[in-house]
Amino acid sequence: MSQAKFTTEEYLAAYEKHGSIDKAGKALGVSRQAIYRAIVKTRNDPAISAAMNRINTSIVPNLTWVKTKHEDGTAYSVLLKPEQISFDSLVENLEEIFSNVPPAPEIPEPSSCNSDLLTVYKIADLHIGMRSWNEETGNDYDTTIAVDLGTKGMSECISGSPASETCIILNLGDMTHADNNQNQTPRSKHALDVDGRHFKTLESSVLFLIHTIEMALQKHKYVIVRNQRGNHDEISFMAITLALYQRYHSCGRVTIDKSPNEFFVHEFGKNMIAACHGDKGDHRRLVLFFSDEYAQIWGKTRWRYLYTGHVHKSKGEDIGGMYCESLRAAALRDAYAHSNGYTGRSQIRATTFHIEHGERSRYVVNY
Asked: What is the pLDDT, as a whole number, of residue 2?
């Protein structure tokens, strides 16, 4: 695509006229990056935009030192930070990026399913993109190993579980080890051992879930997919969710839950199934929250379950009418876990519920 020269105003006018980055780019004969760069530039300090132009980059810096002078000629430096793009703008841009994802292929419905059963496939802390060295930690781990272990674990769980009419693929967060190429946790800035660039991690995560969904469609009539936010993947989980939504939004048998709600609740007969990552409160506080926030569902159900990840260890307890369970991580150990003496085993688990009688069976894959 030729890159004709246009002013920022002309790029913005094309975007306003055509209503999308892709359409504006096609109309002007330029790449979508050129249009997006013009939009970003209008949200930033002119000095930062000038610096971006000077080195011909579309990458917006996190901060910039700019040299200037007082009226008396004395030189000094000023620290500039670009205006942060809002959550709504970020989601809109991600939806734009994934708007051309090809639809999912047709998969024949299974011949027989039990509508009295619901199966939940739980994936906690898979940490795709993490790097671990056997000589240091006792196990190798990288993007390829993570996807391979996750795929084998889910395949075995799907094969071993009953043919319930509906299943939920429940990602409890931290599917990706990092959230960007800075290789740090988003909030605490904890240094991370990573395997390759973040683009590769995101692509591998999306392909893993696509494969999982299409395995599940061969066993279950309906598939619900829910990705929870983790403390490692506060933005990445949105990108993964929106990519899946674009692929399956016209597939009547697949529901991609893209609600921004921090908490997940699903009502199935007399069962209340709840989930969150688990990094913002212990089980006792979460039970009080769910009983109040979802009081109507709480009152109609007898069997109530809460699932969390984050702590990378298995623990189950009854608290005030709800069974609360933290799940083992699906990932193997990294250097941080090994050096701190953590010994948790890796696991993926499926649980099947009866519409009247609660939990009916479990299928567990350890590795």
From this structure: 45
Assess whether 77 and 106 both reside in one domain: no
Instruction: Average the pLDDT over 136-158 and give the result.
Output: 97
Structure tokens at 281: 């409160």
293 half-sphere exposure, CB direction, 13 A CA radius: 13
Q: What pLDDT is recorded for position 83?
A: 47
What tokens does 269 get?
């007969």
Strand order in the sheet with 114-123: 254-257, 222-227, 164-171, 114-123, 347-354, 358-366
Domain that holds residue 114: 98-366
User: Residues 178-191: what's their mean pLDDT?
Assistant: 92
| Separation of alpha carbons 276 and 279, rounded Å | 8
d(CA 271, CA 303): 5
Is 75 domain-assigned?
A: yes
Residue ending a domain, among 62, 84, 106, is 84
Candidates 334, 312, 320, 364; CA nearest to 172 is 312
Tokens for 221, please give them: 């009539």
Q: Looking at the structure, tell me whether residues 172 and 314 fall in a common domain.
A: yes
**Going by DSSP bridges, is the β-strand pair 322-326/315-319 parallel, antiparallel, or unpaired?**
antiparallel
Q: Could you give the number of structural domains in the chain?
A: 2
